[in-house]
Amino acid sequence: MTAVEDASPLLQVRDLRRYYPIRKGVIARTVGHVRAVDGVSFDVYPGETVGIVGESGCGKSTTGRAVVRLEPPTSGSVLFDGTDIATLSTARMRRLRTELQMVFQDPYSSLNPQIRIGDLLAEPLVAHKRLDRAGARAKAAEMLATVGLPQLSLDRYPHELSGGMRQRVGIARALMLEPRLIVCDEPVSALDVSIQAQVLNLLKDLQGEFGLTYVFISHGLGAIKYISDRIVVMYLGKVMETATTAEIFARPRHPYTEILLDAYPEPDPRLRDRERIIVEGDVPSPANPPPGCVFHTRCPYAQDICRTEAPPLNAAGGARHQVACHFPLAQEAS
Amino acid sequence: MHKRLEPETGQSSARLMIRRFRRHRLAVVGLVVVVLMVLMAALAPLLAPDDPNRIFDKFESSPSGEHLLGTDSVGRDVLSRLIYGARVSMSVGVGAVVVYVVIGVLLGLLAGYYGGWVDQVLMRITDVFMSFPYFMVILILVSVLGPSLLTIIVVIGALAWPMIGRLVRGSVLSIKGSDYVQAAVALGYRTPRILFRHILPNALSPIVVNATFGVAQAIILESGLSFLGMGVRPPAASWGNMLSEAQSITVLSSQPWIWIPPGLMILLAVLAINFVGDGLRDSMESRSES
Lengths: 334, 290
Prior knowledge:
The structure holds two protein chains of two kinds.
Chain A: E1 11-24, E2 29-44, E3 49-53, H1 60-67, E4 75-80, E5 83-84, H2 90-96, E6 100-103, H3 117-127, H4 133-146, H5 163-175, E7 181-185, H6 193-210, E8 213-218, H7 221-227, E9 230-235, E10 238-244, H8 245-250, H9 255-263, H10 304-308, E11 314-315, E12 322-323
Parallel strand pairs in A: 3-8, 3-9, 6-7, 7-8
Antiparallel strand pairs in A: 1-2, 1-4, 4-5, 9-10, 10-12, 11-12
Chain B: H1 13-22, H2 25-42, H3 44-47, H4 78-114, H5 116-130, H6 134-145, H7 149-159, H8 161-176, H9 179-186, H10 191-199, H11 204-227, H12 239-243, H13 249-254, H14 256-285
């Protein structure tokens, strides 16, 4: 499961921005922008899982949607295997989509309620003219077994399946075209805790079986820690810190990461009475982000420079550890 | 983890809808009446006792064993004309609705899915069409094009689509943002497939309900036009032009067999169709998809 360090990245996100215009008045003039994603860069190497973590509204889902171009970037580039998908023509993008799939958060709304599971799974192959209907149905039956669903489900409608089963269908559908990269947008957040682990294990198994690369988006550190090789921590549309999973959990360098980890419940009761960091205030609005470091309004260590100057994402020691902070935490902090 | 699947599942939402519809008594009665009228229209040559255009010696004769509903002022059998008249009403009702549903659905899909200037242009055209004095424009167009069954169908169809267009556009706007449409885009489906396979089937309920009420309205409209002599050209029988004989005071006051039956048929048809529409609306709206 470790990333192939010397290979070239499969996905390179460079300075990605996605602004939503705020319109007001009868003539709908633009009075400002919501900076959902504001200059995000990261790499994803073949075969690895990169987790994107952050609070709701930090732009992690928008980033994921931009990677599969469900959301056109305002600026920046998304290089998939060297091709910039942000500027690709619709026709070429449609062909490229077979290599680039997405699993959605809500298994209840991501499956068309009018279509039987078998047809739902066969459709990608038919639409891309890879197989005729009969052949595609056979493939669908195969894939159903791969994701651990009974063959009976083929003729069921989505509403007849449970949430966990539906998410398996969502995963199976994403796999039908044999993609290389799958963006998983909070794939387990809508599921019962007891089902979450099963779906995560399924994703891990499939990764080994099909040699998949994942971008795994979640606000839950548990799922992220379990599945990711590397983690990107986002806050208010920007990357705060990125490092391997082990690094992030052992030696967070960004105060925000530290707070995020601190908020993660400790399963071991003997370790529970450590001192907690209390964060004050709310997340500022992405329509009006604070100047300087976007986190300074809530950062316990903020200094004057943090209020005026945005820190760049710098190397911070350790393998591919990068942090955007003027005063990164000491290495031995935990 | 696998929930046991009960053998009686595999049910589509359509079947669920039928079950709800059947609980709606009036709608079921309405449906039966509509089916009977359609059969009457289809089997008119077998059911009618006489040729609807054959002129008998006795005109304006009251109902008798020979002519169950009497004869009209020219001497034609009223019952036969009534049965043949169903053909006009049913074909105008269904024909006009098919025309405007096709137009409205296409334009609504395009406006809702593409948005932006496509939506702006199409919706302004819709506004223009909606601001027409509907009945007047139909009268003028029919008189210019010449009254005939086909003209009426086309004219009503060409003018009545804005309602459906807006309805469809609204549904598309809400469905477009749903995850399953996003998934269809991510899977690289072409726009026609997304529109007709993923969006339209999920926007169908309001269209079906609206179209049902539309059939009733088209029937009324045709009757009105025929009553004014702008509808189906005589001697062809239509309930509307049979009714127009009541414009004469003598017929109105002393020969009720000539105008009451067609009036009742129009009433019955419209009422039955509207009950079906009510039933459809109730059984479709309360549907939960998941």
